[in-house]
Amino acid sequence: xxxxxxxxxxxxxxxxxxxxxxxxxxxxxxxxxxxxxxxxxxxxxxxxxxxxxxxxxxxxxxxxxxxxxxxxxxxxxxxxxxxxxxxxxxxxxxxxxxxxxxxxxxxxxxxxxxxxxxxxxxxxxxxxxxxxxxxxxxxxxxxxxxxxxxxxxxxxxxxxxxxxxxxxxxxxxxxxxxxxxxxxxx
Length: 186
Prior knowledge:
Elements lengths: L1 H18 L3 E8 L3 E9 L2 E9 L3 E8 L5 E8 L3 E14 L13 E25 L5 E20 L3 E8 L2 E10 L6
Antiparallel strand pairs: 1-4, 2-3, 3-6, 4-5, 5-7, 6-7, 7-8, 8-9, 8-10
């Protein structure tokens, strides 16, 4: 009886350890098909990542959660590789919304960042990182080297409009750095 209680306690501890984890790291080296998927929902933040490969490949991934979400992914494949990533930050605090359009905006925090990457590469290397910066800053780094199709999009809206698009096809070597948010140095 005690054996079953101890075994169930350790099994329960193991399950809750993975469910409540603040950090997940994984590395996969395979000679066949692999598929890695992750998603995180935080306060005002969403992150989803999907990667698949069909031939010899190596996938490294690190996911840190908590106050701010941080994700790093690197994949190398000798064959086809599919990529789908989406990230968004949406925070909207309106304590005293203005009654008139000409009134100054007081006590308002508006942040809307969004980015997505989709691609299908014949072979090559892909890496991406979502790095939180100080306060409102979010940084996204994307690097791809190989052959295939890659589509990136960015969007930001908080009384400042920013829309970005990037399409690549065929032989590709792409490196992008996107930064959303602003710092007030006054």
